[in-house]
Write a structure and sequence with these properties.
Layout (H helix, E strand, L loop, with lengths): L6 E5 L3 H12 L3 E6 L12 E4 L5 H10 L2 E4 L6 H8 L8 H7 L2 H10 L7 E4 L2 H11 L3 E5 L9 E4 L8 H4 L5 E5 L3 E11 L5 E3 L4 E5 L2 E7 L5 H17 L4 E10 L4 E7 L9 H4 L4 H9 L12 E8 L6 H5 L4 E5 L10 E9 L8
Parallel strand pairs: 1-2, 1-4, 2-3
Antiparallel strand pairs: 5-8, 6-7, 6-8, 9-10, 9-11, 9-13, 11-12, 12-15, 13-14, 15-17, 16-17
Length: 360
């Protein structure tokens, strides 16, 4: 168990790294961020920073020597970088979770191997394979790059056969996966943590609404039966245990119209749909992650309020002055330099009591 005063290494300097560093500071822990030069809001609140490309071997060695444990704030950190650091200092979650999550085909095969329902899928390595995959999976479907796509990037929607020509080129002629549509009623997620001792703690599932492939709103509690919430938590526990995972994970689910659950994807990190825990729980997902990777006991995941979290995307952040005076609203701004289309600039959370009345 790492004592207060220890240093947490964070790979990545974005808003998740920023909120992890703030959570570490609350527990008397220091943070050291490793990220390439650029607009890195995490660097505003950390104790130390290594500004270098992830393939800089000397920088990786210096970073590993300066921290007591390391973690990553996003899943596109190169695996070889994390593996080299892990050879020098503990990295939690480990390399395996990162390897699986970085490739959509590997991830789907991993989930299928656990007997977990997913959307139907097929590997697509060229235009001819796309034609074959469409014949097998059917339409509508969505073509996604296997790597580096997020928030709707690297994707092409195929609603009819007229959308198939050129789709391979629209995703950059990169190794891809075709996913069939599923008939779902709503989207939910489970934010859960697994400790070094194997203990698992889950938050209540939020219901998530997306716009243009980007999470727009998360509401908790989700409008689902308790049995579905319990099943989603149980499936998340299976994923955590199978990977011998340490830290917080976000698992996205489709609630199908027949009552079953299908996993969309998982993220081996703190998750956007868990931001509401900053204001509606005594222990946020960020503190929970720090607790887990440091070997501390996991905290209480109970919520004291219902909540609605709304992302501030691009120019939404320009409303900050009006939001700042709205009663009952919790405003979180990420300190990024400029809005761009699709860029998450902050979020707000509105809290409600169990009767649905806004907490002021």
């Amino acid at each position: 168990m790492l004592a207060p005063g220890s240093t947490i290494g964070i790979l990545g300097g974005g808003q998740l790294g920023r909120m992890l560093a703030l959570a570490a500071a609350r527990l008397g822990l220091k943070s050291h961020i490793f990220c390439p030069p650029g607009d890195n809001p995490g660097s505003h609140v950390c104790d130390s920073i290594t500004l270098a490309e992830y393939d800089d071997a000397a920088a990786r060695a210096r970073f590993a020597a300066a921290v007591d444990v390391a973690t990553y704030e996003f899943e596109n950190v190169p695996v070889d970088c994390v593996a080299e650091i892990a050879a020098r200092v503990a990295v939690r979650p480990g390399v395996e979770a990162l390897r699986i999550s970085q490739d959509r085909l590997t991830e789907k095969n991993f989930l299928a191997g656990l007997g977990i329902v997913t959307a139907p899928f097929a590997s697509v390595d060229d235009a001819a394979a796309l034609t074959q995959a469409v014949a097998r999976i059917g339409l509508p479907a969505i073509l996604k790059t296997r790597r580096l796509g997020y928030d709707g990037r690297g994707q092409s929607m195929l609603r009819t056969v007229l959308d198939v020509p050129g789709a391979w080129e629209r995703v950059g002629a990169s190794p891809s996966i075709l996913e069939g549509f599923v008939d779902f009623e709503r989207e939910i997620s489970v934010i859960a943590a697994r400790g070094i001792d194997g203990s698992i703690a889950s938050y209540d599932p939020p219901e998530n609404l997306h716009k243009d492939g980007i999470l727009a709103i998360s509401r908790v509690p989700a409008q689902i039966p308790d049995a579905i919430a319990r099943e989603a938590a149980a499936l998340t526990s299976r994923i955590l245990t199978e990977m011998d995972y340490t830290g917080v994970i976000g698992v996205e689910f489709f609630v199908l119209k027949d009552g079953r659950l299908a996993v969309n994807e998982f993220a081996p990190r703190v998750h956007n749909s868990g931001h509401w825990t900053l204001d509606a729980c005594a222990i946020s997902q960020f503190e929970q992650h720090i607790r887990a990777i440091c070997g501390w006991p996991l905290g209480d995941t109970a919520r004291h309020s219902n909540a609605e979290m709304q992302n501030l995307i691009s120019a939404d952040v320009m409303q900050w002055s009006a939001l700042a005076v709205e009663p009952g609203l919790c405003l979180h701004l990420y300190g990024k330099d400029a809005p761009r289309p699709g860029r998450k600039m902050g979020h707000v959370t509105r809290l409600f009591d169990k009767s649905g009345t806004l907490v002021r």
